[in-house]
Amino acid sequence: MTIKIIPGAKWGRRAWAQPIHAVPTTERQHFLVHYDGGTPITRTGNAVPQAVDKEHHGNGWAGIGYNFLVDQAGNVYEGRGWNLVGAHCPNFNRNGIGVQVAIGGSQEPSEAAKAAVVALYAEASRLAGKNLAKSFHGEHFSTSCAGSHLIPWVKAGMPLSGAQQPAQQAPPVASVPAPRAVKTATNASQLAIDGVWGKATTSLWQKLMGTPVDGIVSKPSALIRAVQHTVGSPADGLLGPVTWRAIQRYIGVTADGVPGPVTIKALQRRLNTGKF
């Protein structure tokens, strides 16, 4: 099953109120399922994540705390995505992926919603390089979340009906940045690892982030705004020390805010993998 994830920019996610740390997908150990609480959910479409985003901003958080949200139609909405620390369960925000199913009270999750959760789990495990531990909010914190229907489903291993079983030979692939699922760069488009940030590096970065490709970083820049969303920096489209430090943490080099040759070489190596 291929995952079609609706990016935050598409459903109307508000700008992060404060920077959010990035975390390598390989550090993830757990996959936590949540629900909305004791009241049934009647919202549909973009209103589902928008309501949660508004609530979490109201809590004084940086913004929506779940990594992903799933509605009853099986739509998947990007919250903090694959690479940002979540805000959904104490002690499991960095090492866990938090997924909320948009149901509440006695509502039962649809088969489409459950299939989307299973597909997210498969992709999260693929990105982590291991099978993540399946769990739910109340397993790690004193809460009734994820409700009377999701908890036994998770405990049973998240089974699906036969019609909803994902094809085993086709692992799910996400369609949004963080990380963006793209074709691996061909040999012809491989960057020279020279530590020089020029037009070729910018053009490939733009291509992988899905922004217009012209090899130029404007002020503000669509490329930089997309990168900021991915690395958890304030998304103003301007490239400064705060954004560079977030990028450096994301690609695994010293976060000094200075884009020197070591940083640019690491960036070029990252881009040559066909994703950012």
Keywords:
33% helix, 276 residues, 2 domains, elongated, six-stranded mixed beta sheet, alpha/beta, Lysozyme-like
Give your account of this protein's structure.
- The chain is built from nine helices and six strands, in the order βαβαβββαβαααααα.
- It has 276 residues and is α/β, with parallel strands linked by helices.
- The protein folds into two domains: 5-164, Peptidoglycan recognition protein-like (Lysozyme-like, 3-Layer(aba) Sandwich), CATH 3.40.80; 187-272, no CATH class.
Number of helical regions:
9
Strand and helix order: EHEHEEEHEHHHHHH
Total number of strands: 6
Distance between the amino and carboxyl termini: 23 Å
Largest sheet: 6 strands, mixed
Strand content of the residues, in percent?
5-15%
Estimate the global geometry from the Cα principal axes: elongated
Instruction: Count the domains.
Output: 2
Helix content: 25-40%
Q: CATH topology of the largest domain, which one? A: Lysozyme-like
CATH superfamily of the largest domain: Peptidoglycan recognition protein-like
By secondary-structure content and strand pairing, the structural class works out as: alpha/beta
Contiguous low-pLDDT stretches (5 residues minimum) are: 167-188
Strand order of the largest sheet: 1-4-3-5-2-6
